[in-house]
Specification:
The chain is an alpha+beta fold. It has helices at residues 5-10, 58-74; strands at residues 18-21, 25-29, 37-43, 80-83, 99-103. A hairpin with a 3-residue loop joins strand 1 (18-21) and strand 2 (25-29).
């Protein structure tokens, strides 16, 4: 059994509110939402962080963004933000690349 929380969600070992899945990614609602819509999109392949990704991961990383845009349309969001935290200093707390899709409220700038 994997120690990675998101791998365990991917594998169905931990329940999650799935909103999308295909052969490359899984998307589910965040259990601690920071906006009315807060979905996490993860690659099925375990990639610990964005800076640990390699050239062979380029396609799946682009796919994360396209799936996020599709989900934003499905959720009828008039605007949305996508975020990928890289490293503890940036707020990454689960060591599996994940894209946050946030929407349903006005976003402020700067985001930090």
């Amino acid at each position: 059994m994997s120690e990675c929380l998101f791998c365990r969600i991917r594998d169905g070992e931990i329940p999650a509110k799935l909103v999308y899945q295909d052969d490359r990614v899984v998307a589910f609602r965040d259990i601690n939402p920071q906006a009315p819509t807060h979905v996490l999109v993860i690659p099925r392949k375990h990639i610990a962080s964005l800076d640990a990704a390699s050239g062979e991961d380029e396609g799946v990383l682009g796919h994360l963004n396209l799936v996020a845009a599709r989900l934003a349309r499905d959720e009828k969001l008039s605007g949305f933000r996508t975020v990928i935290n890289n490293g503890a200093e940036a707020g990454q707390s689960v060591w599996h690349v994940h894209l946050h899709l946030l929407g349903g409220r006005p976003m402020r700038w700067p985001p930090g």
